[in-house]
Amino acid sequence: MPELPELQAHAERLSAELGGRTLNGFRPMTFTALKTVLPAPDDLVGRPLDVVERTGKYLMLRFGDDRFVVHLMQGGRLTPDEKQSAKPRGGLARWTFDDGSALLLTEMAKEKRAGVWVVAGDPTDQAPLAGLGPDALGLGRDELAAALTGYKSMRVHGFLRDQRAIAGIGRRLSSEICWRAKLSPFAATHKLTDDEVDRLHAALGSAIDEALAFERGLDAMSSSAERPGSVYKRAGEECVVCGDTIRAVEYNAYTVNYCATCQTGGKVLADNTTSKFLK
Ligand SMILES: [Zn+2]
Fold first, then answer.
1. Interatomic CA distance for residues 126 and 172, integer angstroms
2. For the whole model, what pTM was predicted?
3. How far is the CA of 251 from the centre of ligand 1 (A)?
Protein backbone atom coordinates (compact mmCIF):
# COMPACT_ATOMS: atom_id res chain seq x y z
CA MET A 1 0.00 0.00 0.00
CA PRO A 2 1.34 3.45 -0.83
CA GLU A 3 2.33 5.33 2.32
CA LEU A 4 2.96 8.99 3.12
CA PRO A 5 6.07 9.50 0.93
CA GLU A 6 4.51 7.95 -2.19
CA LEU A 7 1.25 9.84 -1.70
CA GLN A 8 2.89 13.17 -0.83
CA ALA A 9 5.09 13.09 -3.95
CA HIS A 10 2.11 12.02 -6.03
CA ALA A 11 -0.05 14.88 -4.72
CA GLU A 12 2.74 17.31 -5.67
CA ARG A 13 3.01 15.70 -9.12
CA LEU A 14 -0.75 15.89 -9.77
CA SER A 15 -0.88 19.49 -8.52
CA ALA A 16 1.83 20.54 -10.94
CA GLU A 17 0.18 18.70 -13.81
CA LEU A 18 -3.53 19.42 -13.29
CA GLY A 19 -3.68 22.49 -11.03
CA GLY A 20 -5.73 25.35 -12.47
CA ARG A 21 -7.85 23.18 -14.77
CA THR A 22 -11.61 23.61 -14.45
CA LEU A 23 -13.73 20.60 -13.49
CA ASN A 24 -16.17 19.58 -16.21
CA GLY A 25 -17.55 16.48 -14.55
CA PHE A 26 -17.10 13.59 -12.15
CA ARG A 27 -18.37 10.11 -12.89
CA PRO A 28 -18.20 7.08 -10.58
CA MET A 29 -17.89 3.83 -12.51
CA THR A 30 -18.96 1.38 -9.81
CA PHE A 31 -21.75 1.49 -7.24
CA THR A 32 -19.34 1.68 -4.33
CA ALA A 33 -16.71 4.13 -5.63
CA LEU A 34 -18.47 7.25 -4.33
CA LYS A 35 -18.85 7.03 -0.55
CA THR A 36 -20.93 10.18 0.00
CA VAL A 37 -24.32 11.44 -1.21
CA LEU A 38 -24.09 15.11 -0.25
CA PRO A 39 -22.63 17.40 -1.33
CA ALA A 40 -23.20 16.26 -4.89
CA PRO A 41 -20.04 16.02 -7.00
CA ASP A 42 -21.74 18.32 -9.51
CA ASP A 43 -21.57 21.14 -6.94
CA LEU A 44 -17.83 21.32 -7.68
CA VAL A 45 -18.23 21.44 -11.46
CA GLY A 46 -17.13 24.71 -13.05
CA ARG A 47 -14.47 25.38 -10.39
CA PRO A 48 -10.71 25.25 -10.97
CA LEU A 49 -8.60 22.62 -9.22
CA ASP A 50 -6.63 24.67 -6.67
CA VAL A 51 -4.27 21.97 -5.49
CA VAL A 52 -3.92 18.26 -4.80
CA GLU A 53 -3.03 17.77 -1.14
CA ARG A 54 -2.33 14.82 1.14
CA THR A 55 -3.20 14.08 4.71
CA GLY A 56 -2.41 10.70 6.24
CA LYS A 57 -2.89 8.20 3.41
CA TYR A 58 -5.56 10.29 1.70
CA LEU A 59 -5.25 12.45 -1.41
CA MET A 60 -7.46 15.53 -1.62
CA LEU A 61 -8.44 17.42 -4.77
CA ARG A 62 -9.39 20.89 -3.56
CA PHE A 63 -11.86 22.97 -5.53
CA GLY A 64 -12.43 26.18 -3.55
CA ASP A 65 -13.74 25.31 -0.08
CA ASP A 66 -14.69 21.75 -1.04
CA ARG A 67 -12.74 18.61 -1.82
CA PHE A 68 -12.76 15.20 -3.38
CA VAL A 69 -11.00 12.96 -0.85
CA VAL A 70 -9.50 9.78 -2.32
CA HIS A 71 -8.14 6.67 -0.61
CA LEU A 72 -6.18 4.29 -2.84
CA MET A 73 -6.12 1.33 -0.42
CA GLN A 74 -3.81 -1.46 -1.63
CA GLY A 75 -3.87 -1.36 -5.41
CA GLY A 76 -5.56 1.94 -6.24
CA ARG A 77 -3.98 4.48 -8.56
CA LEU A 78 -5.00 8.02 -9.46
CA THR A 79 -3.46 8.90 -12.80
CA PRO A 80 -3.92 11.20 -15.79
CA ASP A 81 -6.25 9.42 -18.19
CA GLU A 82 -5.02 9.79 -21.73
CA LYS A 83 -7.16 7.08 -23.35
CA GLN A 84 -10.46 7.95 -21.66
CA SER A 85 -11.89 4.62 -22.74
CA ALA A 86 -15.53 3.83 -21.94
CA LYS A 87 -14.65 0.89 -19.68
CA PRO A 88 -11.09 1.29 -18.39
CA ARG A 89 -9.55 -1.73 -16.69
CA GLY A 90 -10.12 -1.49 -12.93
CA GLY A 91 -11.86 1.86 -13.41
CA LEU A 92 -13.59 3.31 -10.33
CA ALA A 93 -14.11 6.99 -11.13
CA ARG A 94 -13.15 9.69 -13.61
CA TRP A 95 -12.76 13.46 -13.35
CA THR A 96 -12.88 15.42 -16.63
CA PHE A 97 -11.53 18.92 -17.17
CA ASP A 98 -12.41 21.75 -19.51
CA ASP A 99 -9.28 21.32 -21.64
CA GLY A 100 -10.27 17.76 -22.52
CA SER A 101 -7.91 16.09 -20.04
CA ALA A 102 -9.06 13.64 -17.39
CA LEU A 103 -7.99 11.94 -14.18
CA LEU A 104 -8.82 8.28 -13.56
CA LEU A 105 -9.08 6.31 -10.32
CA THR A 106 -8.39 2.61 -10.84
CA GLU A 107 -7.97 -0.32 -8.48
CA MET A 108 -6.45 -3.60 -9.56
CA ALA A 109 -7.97 -5.83 -6.90
CA LYS A 110 -10.75 -8.38 -6.81
CA GLU A 111 -12.45 -6.59 -3.95
CA LYS A 112 -12.74 -2.88 -4.71
CA ARG A 113 -12.02 -0.91 -1.56
CA ALA A 114 -10.60 2.37 -2.83
CA GLY A 115 -13.07 5.22 -2.81
CA VAL A 116 -13.98 8.87 -3.17
CA TRP A 117 -15.67 11.17 -0.66
CA VAL A 118 -16.98 14.64 -1.46
CA VAL A 119 -16.41 16.86 1.57
CA ALA A 120 -17.69 20.42 2.02
CA GLY A 121 -15.55 22.87 4.00
CA ASP A 122 -12.84 21.95 6.51
CA PRO A 123 -12.36 18.17 6.15
CA THR A 124 -10.53 17.69 9.46
CA ASP A 125 -13.48 16.57 11.58
CA GLN A 126 -15.49 14.93 8.82
CA ALA A 127 -15.44 11.43 7.39
CA PRO A 128 -13.14 9.94 6.27
CA LEU A 129 -10.48 12.11 7.96
CA ALA A 130 -12.13 12.45 11.38
CA GLY A 131 -10.19 10.62 14.07
CA LEU A 132 -6.83 10.58 12.28
CA GLY A 133 -3.82 11.12 14.51
CA PRO A 134 -1.29 13.90 13.80
CA ASP A 135 0.34 13.61 10.39
CA ALA A 136 3.71 11.86 10.45
CA LEU A 137 5.32 14.35 8.02
CA GLY A 138 7.26 16.91 10.04
CA LEU A 139 6.02 15.46 13.34
CA GLY A 140 7.97 17.05 16.20
CA ARG A 141 9.70 15.06 18.93
CA ASP A 142 7.30 16.29 21.63
CA GLU A 143 4.27 15.66 19.41
CA LEU A 144 5.45 12.09 18.93
CA ALA A 145 5.99 11.70 22.69
CA ALA A 146 2.47 13.05 23.32
CA ALA A 147 0.99 10.68 20.73
CA LEU A 148 2.82 7.74 22.33
CA THR A 149 1.61 8.46 25.86
CA GLY A 150 -1.82 9.76 24.87
CA TYR A 151 -2.83 6.59 23.06
CA LYS A 152 -3.46 3.07 24.38
CA SER A 153 -0.34 1.07 25.10
CA MET A 154 0.65 -1.14 22.20
CA ARG A 155 3.62 -2.49 20.29
CA VAL A 156 5.63 0.23 18.52
CA HIS A 157 5.16 -1.39 15.12
CA GLY A 158 1.37 -1.45 15.56
CA PHE A 159 1.34 2.12 16.88
CA LEU A 160 3.24 3.42 13.87
CA ARG A 161 0.75 1.77 11.51
CA ASP A 162 -2.36 2.87 13.44
CA GLN A 163 -3.82 5.87 11.59
CA ARG A 164 -5.62 7.05 14.75
CA ALA A 165 -2.28 7.21 16.59
CA ILE A 166 -0.24 8.95 13.87
CA ALA A 167 -1.29 9.22 10.24
CA GLY A 168 0.54 8.28 7.04
CA ILE A 169 2.69 5.25 7.91
CA GLY A 170 2.06 1.67 6.86
CA ARG A 171 3.66 -1.76 7.02
CA ARG A 172 6.80 -0.99 5.08
CA LEU A 173 7.85 2.19 6.85
CA SER A 174 7.00 0.87 10.30
CA SER A 175 9.50 -1.98 9.91
CA GLU A 176 12.09 0.42 8.45
CA ILE A 177 11.59 2.97 11.25
CA CYS A 178 11.91 0.40 14.07
CA TRP A 179 15.11 -0.93 12.47
CA ARG A 180 16.60 2.56 12.10
CA ALA A 181 15.66 3.35 15.72
CA LYS A 182 17.24 0.08 16.91
CA LEU A 183 13.97 -0.68 18.67
CA SER A 184 12.14 -3.98 18.86
CA PRO A 185 8.95 -3.77 16.78
CA PHE A 186 7.27 -5.34 19.81
CA ALA A 187 8.51 -2.71 22.32
CA ALA A 188 5.63 -1.35 24.43
CA THR A 189 4.84 2.28 23.58
CA HIS A 190 4.21 3.32 27.19
CA LYS A 191 7.55 1.91 28.37
CA LEU A 192 9.86 3.74 25.97
CA THR A 193 12.66 5.73 27.60
CA ASP A 194 13.39 9.32 26.57
CA ASP A 195 16.38 8.06 24.60
CA GLU A 196 14.23 5.53 22.77
CA VAL A 197 11.66 8.23 21.91
CA ASP A 198 14.53 10.37 20.58
CA ARG A 199 15.71 7.49 18.39
CA LEU A 200 12.19 6.70 17.20
CA HIS A 201 11.64 10.35 16.27
CA ALA A 202 14.93 10.60 14.37
CA ALA A 203 14.21 7.31 12.56
CA LEU A 204 10.69 8.43 11.65
CA GLY A 205 11.98 11.66 10.15
CA SER A 206 14.89 10.17 8.22
CA ALA A 207 12.89 7.21 6.84
CA ILE A 208 10.16 9.54 5.58
CA ASP A 209 12.59 12.13 4.19
CA GLU A 210 14.61 9.55 2.27
CA ALA A 211 11.54 7.83 0.83
CA LEU A 212 10.08 11.20 -0.14
CA ALA A 213 13.30 12.25 -1.90
CA PHE A 214 13.32 8.95 -3.81
CA GLU A 215 9.67 9.31 -4.79
CA ARG A 216 10.01 12.95 -5.87
CA GLY A 217 12.64 11.83 -8.38
CA LEU A 218 10.15 9.63 -10.25
CA ASP A 219 7.62 10.49 -12.97
CA ALA A 220 4.91 8.30 -11.45
CA MET A 221 4.20 6.59 -8.13
CA SER A 222 6.63 3.73 -7.49
CA SER A 223 5.53 0.12 -7.26
CA SER A 224 6.14 -1.52 -3.89
CA ALA A 225 9.04 -3.55 -5.35
CA GLU A 226 10.85 -0.37 -6.41
CA ARG A 227 10.83 1.29 -2.97
CA PRO A 228 14.25 1.21 -1.33
CA GLY A 229 14.54 -0.28 2.12
CA SER A 230 16.83 -2.14 4.48
CA VAL A 231 14.54 -4.66 6.20
CA TYR A 232 11.02 -4.73 4.76
CA LYS A 233 10.55 -7.85 2.57
CA ARG A 234 14.27 -8.58 2.98
CA ALA A 235 13.94 -11.63 5.23
CA GLY A 236 16.95 -13.90 4.74
CA GLU A 237 19.20 -11.09 3.51
CA GLU A 238 22.04 -9.60 5.54
CA CYS A 239 21.45 -6.56 7.73
CA VAL A 240 23.53 -3.77 6.16
CA VAL A 241 24.57 -2.56 9.63
CA CYS A 242 25.61 -5.75 11.44
CA GLY A 243 25.49 -8.60 8.91
CA ASP A 244 22.94 -10.66 10.87
CA THR A 245 20.08 -12.23 8.90
CA ILE A 246 16.91 -10.15 8.58
CA ARG A 247 14.01 -12.00 10.19
CA ALA A 248 10.26 -11.94 9.73
CA VAL A 249 7.18 -12.35 11.91
CA GLU A 250 4.34 -13.34 9.60
CA TYR A 251 0.77 -12.29 10.21
CA ASN A 252 -2.30 -13.00 8.12
CA ALA A 253 -2.26 -9.69 6.32
CA TYR A 254 1.29 -8.43 6.72
CA THR A 255 4.86 -9.14 7.77
CA VAL A 256 7.05 -7.48 10.38
CA ASN A 257 10.75 -7.53 9.44
CA TYR A 258 13.58 -6.84 11.86
CA CYS A 259 17.22 -7.52 12.72
CA ALA A 260 17.61 -9.36 16.02
CA THR A 261 21.19 -8.13 16.62
CA CYS A 262 20.32 -4.47 15.96
CA GLN A 263 16.89 -4.38 17.56
CA THR A 264 16.15 -7.06 20.15
CA GLY A 265 19.48 -7.93 21.74
CA GLY A 266 19.46 -11.14 19.70
CA LYS A 267 16.01 -12.28 20.81
CA VAL A 268 13.93 -13.95 18.08
CA LEU A 269 10.38 -12.66 18.06
CA ALA A 270 7.34 -14.86 17.74
CA ASP A 271 3.79 -13.70 17.66
CA ASN A 272 1.88 -15.30 20.51
CA THR A 273 -1.46 -13.72 19.77
CA THR A 274 -2.18 -15.18 16.35
CA SER A 275 0.39 -17.87 15.58
CA LYS A 276 -1.59 -20.55 17.42
CA PHE A 277 -4.50 -20.03 15.02
CA LEU A 278 -2.34 -20.43 11.95
CA LYS A 279 -1.23 -23.75 10.56
ZN1 LIG B 1 21.47 -5.57 12.15
1. 28
2. 0.95
3. 22
Interatomic CA distance for residues 69 and 58, integer angstroms:
7
Instruction: Please state, in angstroms and rounded to a whole number, the distance separating the CA atoms of residues 256 and 242.
Output: 19
Question: 272 pLDDT band (50/70/90 cuts)?
Answer: low
Report which secondary-structure segment, H or E, holds 149: helix 141-150
CB 258 within 8 A of CB 171: no
* DSSP bridge pairs for 257: 248
| Single-letter amino acid code for the residue at 212 | L
What's the 244 CA to ligand 1 centre distance in angstroms? Answer: 5
Local structure of 104: helix, strand or coil:
strand
Q: Specify the higher pLDDT residue, 273 or 156.
A: 156
Region class of 245: left (phi > 0), else alpha (psi between -120 and 50), else beta: beta
Q: Is the separation of the CB atoms in 144 and 201 below 8 Å?
A: yes
Give the Cα separation of 106 and 88 in Å (integer): 8
